[in-house]
Every structure is written in structure tokens, then in C-alpha cells.
Amino acid sequence: MAVYLTKESKVLVQGMTGGEGMKHTRRMIAAGTDVVGGVNPRKAGRTVDFGDRAVPVFGSVADGMRSTGADVTVVFVPPAFARSAVTEAADAGIGLAVVITEGVPVHDSVAFTTYAKARGTRVIGPNCPGLISPGQSNAGIIPADIAKPGRIGLVSKSGTLTYQLMYELRDIGFSTCVGIGGDPVVGTTHIDCLTAFEDDPDTDLVVLIGEIGGDAEERAAAHIRDHITKPVVGYLAGFTAPEGRTMGHAGAIVSGSSGTAQAKKAALEAAGVRVGSTPTETARLVLDLLGNRT
């Protein structure tokens, strides 16, 4: 089992024929992802050779879905076009849109996440590394060779820390790792992923990675307290950040005690979450809970 993305997922890539799209489509295919098409209105009808697979290019997401049965799209388009790309995908009725693009204006993110949700399309991102169900499928830019299939679920604001925890726990393995993105507005939240992992019979424990700024982790803590029965281990980036400063991701804005790492740690621990002070310590907490300390 996995959440959101499985070996059955059929993936389109909007922006596949661009430099980043080409590079990461090749990596997704190498990881076993069933990439069934690209989308570029100016190159419709062509095919792109990725060695073991020739991938057709369609003029629209709707055309690609009709021809291939695609149910996932990965978006590698410039920030100015992200809103129209996601809107097009939602209008076509695709189930999942993974928006890798960074630098998307916040008002565009608000518009397309709201629009997609109303039409039943789940958005992950923007400004995210995507998600991977190791051994099954990889939609985005997460390296596929740093983890194996297992029974840990991971949800993270930070792409780099997603990779770090995957590497730290590579011998245990993951059901699905979801990088939700660190922008102020994202389509899928910690709470969404926690709920999905709670419902997944093959996920035994969840790792939650947050960072300073906003109140997403505090809201996640309340949800864990009231609705999550599986153990959760947390890690928070930003303990050494000065207050009143914007640090890193656009969402990491701290004012006074609101949004600080210490406040988030306290909220999570009050909900029963064990919080590590470093990625390595966080991994040790996971091993302790799983009874796999070596």
C-alpha cells in the first residue's frame, strides 16, 4: 500500500519537453514510474525518446487523459504558467497534480488550489519535491535511490530534509514520502497526509517534518491529538533562527513567539509526538518506536 501514488498511477508531465522536465522525466521513468505522456500544445503529436520508452506529447491534459488513462500530472512549468497549468488539469478531471514549480505568486497559489479542490483534484505543492512510494512510483524530483519500500510514512515541508530523513531511515523504508512544500499556501497539508497515513494499513509510523513560521505544525498537533492513533515522530527546522525574520521558505515568517520552533515543539509534544533535535536523533526516535535499534 501507499498513499496518493502507487504502481498503478499513470503520470503525465506538463512541461516535459523543457530542460527540467526532460531531466526529471528520465529519472522518474528510471524509478519505475509509468509516465504515459507529456503536455505541450506547441509540440503535440511528437514523441520523446527516453531510451526504454518513447513518450508521446499531447496538446492538452484532457487529450493525454483520454489517450492514456492518466490520473496524475507533474507540473514543470515556469511560475507565470503554473496557475493555468493546474487549472487545465483540474478542468480535465485529473485526480492528482504535483506542482514542482517554485516562485509561484501567492495569489496564483490561492486561486489554483481553491479551484482544483472544488473540482476534486488534489494539489501537492507548489514549490515541492513531489512524492515517492519507493518501489512503486515517483512523481517529482525526489531521488529514488535513497530509500526502499517499508512501513514509515513521511510528510515534510522541506525538500532537503525529506531526503535527509529518507537517507537516515533507508534501512527501514517507507510507504510514501510526501514533500508538501514550504510556501504560505499549499494544496496538501500535514493534516491531509496524516489522515491518509492513519488510514493506510501498511503505514505503521509517521515522520512529520516542519519548520518555523505559520501555524501548520500547531494545527497538525491538534489533529494528531484528536484523530491519529499511530505513533508520530517530528523534526522542526529553525531552532536557531532569530525572531522577527523571514528565513528560507516563503512561509517561514516568525513574529514574537508565534511560529517559533520552540512553540511548535511544545505543541507537538503535548499531542504525544516525540520531537528530535537533529535529523539523526529523529531517526533514532523512529528506530526506538519500531523496536529496531541496532
TrEMBL record:
Residues recorded as binding substrate, renumbered to this chain, are 163
Q: Where does CoA bind?
A: 17-20, 43, 100-102
Q: Which SMART domains match?
A: CoA_binding (SM00881)
Q: Which InterPro entries match?
A: Cit_synth/succinyl-CoA_lig_AS, Citrt_syn/SCS-alpha_CS, CoA-bd, CoA_lig_alpha, NAD(P)-bd_dom_sf, SUCC_ACL_C, Succinyl-CoA_synth-like
Q: Which domain of life is it from?
A: Bacteria
Domain named CoA-binding is located at: 4-104
Provide the reaction this enzyme catalyses: GTP + succinate + CoA = succinyl-CoA + GDP + phosphate; succinate + ATP + CoA = succinyl-CoA + ADP + phosphate
MF terms in GO: succinate-CoA ligase (ADP-forming) activity
Q: Which controlled-vocabulary keywords does the entry list?
A: Ligase, Nucleotide-binding, Tricarboxylic acid cycle
The cross-references to Pfam families, in alphabetical order and at most eight, read: CoA_binding, Ligase_CoA
State the active site: 249 (tele-phosphohistidine intermediate)
* Enzyme Commission number(s): 6.2.1.5
Q: In which pathway does it act?
A: Carbohydrate metabolism; tricarboxylic acid cycle; succinate from succinyl-CoA (ligase route): step 1/1
Concerning Gene3D superfamilies, the annotation shows: NAD(P)-binding Rossmann-like Domain, Succinyl-CoA synthetase domains
Per UniProt, subunit arrangement is: Heterotetramer of two alpha and two beta subunits.
| Functional summary from the UniProt entry | Succinyl-CoA synthetase functions in the citric acid cycle (TCA), coupling the hydrolysis of succinyl-CoA to the synthesis of either ATP or GTP and thus represents the only step of substrate-level phosphorylation in the TCA. The alpha subunit of the enzyme binds the substrates coenzyme A and phosphate, while succinate binding and nucleotide specificity is provided by the beta subunit.
Tell me its family: Belongs to the succinate/malate CoA ligase alpha subunit family.
Q: Which HAMAP family match?
A: Succ_CoA_alpha (MF_01988)
The record, for NCBIfam families, names:
PRK05678.1 (NF004230), sucCoAalpha (TIGR01019)
Name of this protein: Succinate--CoA ligase [ADP-forming] subunit alpha
Q: Which organism is it from?
A: Streptomyces bobili
